[in-house]
Design brief:
Elements (H helix, E strand, L loop, with lengths): L3 H18 L1 H5 L8 H22 L8 H19 L1 H5 L6 H12 L15 H29 L19 H28 L4 H12 L17 H14 L3 H8 L4 H5 L1 H24 L4 H16 L14 H10 L15 H19 L8 E2 L2 E2 L2 H27 L4 H12 L7 H4 L10 H15 L3 H4 L10
Antiparallel strand pairs: 1-2
Helix pairs in contact: 1-3, 1-4, 4-6, 4-7, 6-7, 6-20, 7-8, 7-9, 8-9, 8-10, 8-11, 10-14, 13-14, 17-18, 17-20, 18-20
């Protein structure tokens, strides 16, 4: 296996990251930048390492083979969070290496779990950098889901028709065109979100920060009370809309830009996703209307916002939904696993896997009555091959096995049942808050022992990289030949 192509690409990404690290200082040049030296030092270190990688590998362009793509994908999602944590580590916050890396890896994977408290009084440059990390992670997730995972045969995007499903020299121009469309769509939705937030009453700083973390479905906020700080139903509804956009396959937006709007309107995954959000919100609204004296309109707005936040794995909270009743707690626990659509910035198991499971269940029930029945599996008008089914079943099994193992390890480290189970679940699904008094929507992860934070960091990466792309590196077959 050739290492030089991987080093070269990582070097390029680090050089790009070094310029991004300077953005908080450059954008806040007329405002408060108390950690300017921390950002400058971090950018120089990042640029120096990236430039060194280029010097070692030379200027020759290297193609990547399948095994090298696996290694590049995993190593990038470890290296980038490490260097992104430097501004936090060098800042005046006094964070340990563990806490700085936890905040960074939670940001880059758009998980949204945080160890920071006192966000309302935190320096603006740190708040902006947290939001930028999630925004960077969001576009990286889209690129990985649409371009890399189909090539590696482990992502659900092989089920959908895009130019990126081919990885040949002939497909390169189309892949480049798709990449430009994805970046443009991502930018356009982000700028639209900034404008809407600003129009609805947020100041420009909050509008920018929350737009970056809404579209990326990351969930970092500028306040310990998350989006509840605004207490504005229109902002909650707007945020629900843009979080839902972040949970829709971005390649459909590219096709929309090219004038093809019917794929977006007809996509079964999108239909199921939107229907699921509405039904779950109505169930919670009805429950609260019956059990409390909360006005129906207010209950629906908060239910829609928080359901959309959890399902899209954003992790915002308008209020502490732990106080809504035991049924709501159970519902939100299971919503943690769902996730948005494949090809979006959302984490979780993804909607299409639940749809495939329902198709298989229907098929098995029919076969019980008609053993010789000939049935073809179709999804969005396309035949579903055994490869897709095998990948989906394998992912589901490993997802549950990882959840069980991570929960057991966290419990062995002294965490209670609710914190262990929901902490592992929210890290694996990249949601953000868990349940309980410690890591619930009104708490954070600061009080957890360092060992537990490292376990959660590993689980965040496993969840973001679709599990199989990491576990395959542990196979002896990967390193042979």
């Amino acid at each position: 296996m050739r290492v030089l192509p991987i080093v070269q690409i990582v070097g390029f990404l680090l050089i790009l990251l070094s310029f991004l690290i300077t953005l908080p200082v450059n954008l806040l040049v007329l405002g408060e930048t108390p950690d300017q030296q921390a950002f400058v030092t971090s950018a120089l270190i990042c640029f120096g390492v990236g430039f060194l990688c280029f010097m070692v590998t030379g200027r020759e362009r290297h193609g990547l083979k399948q095994r090298e793509m696996f290694l590049l994908t995993v190593s990038t999602w470890v290296i980038i969070p490490f260097f992104s944590s430097l501004p936090l580590l060098f800042s005046d916050l006094g964070l340990s290496v563990t806490d700085a890396f936890f905040e960074s890896i939670s940001g880059i994977t758009t998980t949204g779990s945080t160890i920071l408290t006192g966000l309302d009084d935190m320096p603006a440059d740190i708040l902006l950098w947290r939001s930028l990390m999630q925004w960077m992670g969001g576009i990286g997730i889209i690129g990985m889901a649409v371009a890399i995972l189909p090539f590696l045969r482990i992502g659900g995007m092989r089920l959908f028709a895009t130019e990126s499903s081919e990885w040949t020299e002939k497909a390169v121009p189309r892949t480049n065109r798709l990449a430009r469309g994805l970046v443009f769509s991502y930018l356009a939705i982000t700028l639209s979100c900034i404008g809407v937030y600003w129009f609805l009453g947020m100041d420009l700083f909050n509008a920018v920060n929350h737009a970056l973390t809404t579209v990326s479905t990351g969930g970092y906020s500028t306040s310990d009370s998350s989006m509840g700080q605004f207490d504005n139903p229109l902002i909650f509804l707007a945020s629900s809309f843009f979080m839902a956009l972040g949970g829709i396959p971005f390649f459909l937006f590219v096709r929309l830009l090219n004038g093809h709007y019917m794929p977006l309107l007809r996509d079964k995954q999108v239909h199921f996703f939107l229907q699921f959000l509405l039904i779950a919100s109505l169930i919670i609204t009805l429950y609260r209307a019956v059990t409390t004296d909360t006005p129906v309109a207010e209950a629906f707005v908060h239910a829609l916002f928080n359901v959309t936040s959890v399902v899209t794995t954003t992790g915002y909270a308008s209020e502490d939904y732990m106080l809504w009743g035991p049924l709501v707690m159970v519902v939100f626990f299971f919503l943690t696993f769902v996730g948005g659509c494949s090809g979006s910035t959302s984490g979780g198991m993804k909607m299409f896997r639940f749809q495939l499971s329902m198709l298989l269940l229907r098929e098995q029930m029919i076969r019980l009555l008609h053993p010789r029945a000939a049935m073809g599996r179709r999804y969005n008008g396309r035949i579903i091959g055994d490869e897709i089914i095998a990948s989906s079943v394998a992912f589901s099994f490993i997802f549950l096995a990882t959840l069980a193992l991570a929960s057991a390890v966290l419990a062995a480290l002294g965490l209670d049942l609710v914190t262990s189970l929901t902490g592992a679940a929210t890290a694996l699904a990249n949601v953000g808050p868990g349940l309980g008094d410690t890591i619930g929507p009104a708490g954070n992860f600061q009080s957890l022992p360092d060992a537990a934070k490292w376990v959660l960091m590993v689980v965040m990466l496993l969840g973001r990289l679709e599990l199989l792309s990491v576990l395959v590196l542990l196979s002896p077959h990967f390193w042979r030949g």
